[in-house]
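Dear Dr. V.,

Thank you for agreeing to look over these. As mentioned in my earlier message, I'm a first-year student in the group and I'm still getting used to reading structure tokens, so any feedback on how I've presented them would be very welcome. I ran two proteins. I've put each sequence directly above its structure. The first is here:
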Amino acid sequence: MDVIEQFDVLVPAFERVAEGTGRDALDSPTPCAEWVVRDLFGHLTGGATTFAAAIRGEDAPEPPTPTDDTIATTTVAAVSSLDKAFRGPGALEQIVSTPFGELPGEVFARILAFDLLMHTWDLARSTGQEVDVPDEVVHAVDGFARQAISAEMRGPHTFGPEVEPPAGASALDRLAAFSGRTP
């Protein structure tokens, strides 16, 4: 499954969960160490804003500073902009300067697909929602992640040390465990 097909599913899944997040949940803890929902939205907004500019070959603008009432829609807009950047001419074929070094656009897109899926899972867990992503997409993201995520890429706000998933865990929960989350 190509990465744009993954984004075709992952971006709307994130949008549903983000739009289902009430203002009263912004200070709820997340599976990401030391982050509450507000921090998770900030991380996604900042990363998507910066990375979309990098993919388009532009200087990164300052990420928007939303209010509590606009934080979810601001993050959805930033993720949408990132999605559009990856769909631009030559975006997947170019070399992009990333926090993990210089990477082909397609490889970076796949890393960000994994990151988006995991942060959608984080947000859903934090707010009592479900993530609606077909197992086919989860398996495609998982296959790439297990080959690409090195020990150097793991950290408290990205992908922690792998944990053992519970017996009978879903494909998405197994991927969450691989990324260091406790399903």
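The second protein is here, in the same arrangement:
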Amino acid sequence: MTRSARIAFSLLVLGILLCASIGCGGRKAAAVKLTDFSDTVVAGSASDFMEVRHVVMRGSNYAIGHAIGEMAEKIGVRVMQPEDTLRNMVQRTYMKENYPVMYERMRGLADSYDLSLSDSRYDFSAIPQFPSGPTGCSVVYYPASSSENGHDMLSRNYDYSLGTFQGGRLQPGEPAVMSRPYVFELYPDNGYPSIAVCALDLLGGVLDGVNSEGLAVAVLAEGEAMRQVGVAPTLGIGMHELESMRYLLDNCKNVEEAKEGLLTLKHFYTAIPCHYIVGDREGRSFVFEFSPQRNGVAIVDGNGPQCVTNHLVSNYKSVDEFPKTGSTNSYDRYREIYEATKDGGKFSVEQMKAVNAGVAFRWHGGENPEYPPTRTLWHALYDLDEGSASIKFYLRDGADPSDKTKKVAEYTDYLTFKLKPSGK
């Protein structure tokens, strides 16, 4: 693969994507109608750090892809044109054979741009939003036996830089990479309905979510591989690091199917190595990881509450083996969550929120002025039995009423999104 091809795709998550003009000509095909569609701002505004849109789509996968293409066109996104036409052709064939749900969405996407899906000059397997820094997510899966309400729950902090992907300061007029996330609520004609928080890739950019069968997923950056072998983003064949989560929500109803899916799929990453936590409404969970050299995988099954942060869980037999550090990093956050959940018992929703709040990124008063800070941009609490998500989103830093030298992160109230029963 040529260096220029890798660079073309890396723009998906490494900066504001202004791909080469698609050169559309002729008359567009008539729009394919969804049976249900809405697009609503549900949190924040243009004057806040974050503006969150809730998008509901019901209809064929072709129509969903077509509508996503129309959304992308409205914000000026162009279809990617990597130079490697052979790769584009093979990627298209791979999706058709291994992920027909996404292939149909690709077909709708291509038509929305008045392009042919068979045109190998284009890669229709992802459509960038606009893409951004340091990550530090923390997730806990609570089986029903550990929850006060008797439901299986997934509690997730999504932590990210307020600046560019590289953690740098923004240029005038440049949006922060995570400033415009979407809550996609999809009801496809083929595949499971799902609710997911998405960014970076409008087709497959799932960061966390739950489907109608009670399967919940979350993706987290994995820092040990980056430190050990560096970062080598590429444009491969198969699923990029976020699209794997979309695949699971569309196709898998429980942990066993998710394991089979992740083991069967071809994986590559376009920005940084990641690992995943997956849970179901049968009280089971696992963490899925790649070795630093990407030549092996590991599955770590949960037994009661299972937590994961930003290092390879499979590298350690216990928290006692973690490196000792003095900063609030992945090992420290994992230890804190583990200590809060290890003794069993039944956790209320408020206690679950408090566990994640204890490891959230905050303003500490000594942040480096050369770099933008990292914040917990949202906390999402997924109820796998109800097929619902309760999420609060970061808006801004405000004054700390108890200490004028500090600031506090200000959030929305928790917003609830719930899948509708089938056929409704």
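From my reading of the second output: The CA atoms of residues 71 and 359 lie 35 Å apart. The first helix runs from residue 3 to 14. Does that match how you would interpret it?

Kind regards,
E.
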